[in-house]
Amino acid sequence: MGRVHRLQTVPPFGDLPTPDGVDVVGVDLPVGRLTAYRGLPDGPSRGSVLLVPGFTGSKEDFRPLVPLLRDAGWSVLAMSRRGQGDSAAPTDPAAYTLDEEAADVVRVAALVDDGAPVHLLGHSLGGVIARAAAIASPSAFRSVTMLCSGPHGWPNRMFLARRLAAEQGNRALFDAQNPIAIGVADAALDQATRFARMRMDRSSTVGITTTAAILELADDTTAALRDTGLPTLVAHGEDDAAWPQVWQHDMAERLGARYAVIPDSAHSPAIEAPEATARLLDGFLADA
Description:
Helix content: 25-40%
Largest sheet: 8 strands, mixed
Structural class: alpha/beta
Distance between the termini: 24 Å
Shape: globular
Radius of gyration: 18 Å
Number of strands: 8
Strand order of the largest sheet: 1-2-4-3-5-6-7-8
Order of helices and strands: HEEEHEHEHEHHHHHEHEHH
Oligomer: single chain
Number of helices: 12
């Protein structure tokens, strides 16, 4: 029995129902306890997959996807990064550098399949972090999927987000991104928006303002990822606008990666089109 089977279950975060066949576990790292969704197939596992969320996200961003991959025979761990939701939240900005975030991913990967290489997927900022983890420790991984994530950032990209969170708090950032919810009572919000607002309130402001700066880094490490030799997939929603789609396509070509556009989705295909996303991943992971 692998270590992922022995991870301790912990209470769910918020009021989103945990999918059938999935549980919530704690992952103890040097930074403290991170939380994760764990989905283990009923029969033999086809391999292990580690999912890394984006900027203001958490494990819950993969909530519809985890059971689909599990039912397809994959062992799945979808983590919340440090500072997100109910994961450990250091107060020192130095704890949220790209290197520290990538080191968490490498450490979690070592727990998923008793040190055997795992398939790695990063969404948006999580893709930037996943790329750094794969470059730092390529032997820890079997493949890398960049989901709605580009080759590099650009200066002042996140200026407004950083300023709002730092000067007025996380709620101001949430309100700027979700103006329809301003002043609306929790009971009047749909479940997903209510959860997202609660998650933003509970997440680390230091983590948000510091990791926002990662999205402004102009360094393009595509060549370094290609040089790892890991099979790669670059995919995004057909209406994704977080990075120019032409950049994502060009990155895929330079990586020699499989490239796919997911219909009926924008920047969050795991939520907006989970079945199509699961089919795409299942095919890529099987080939990789």
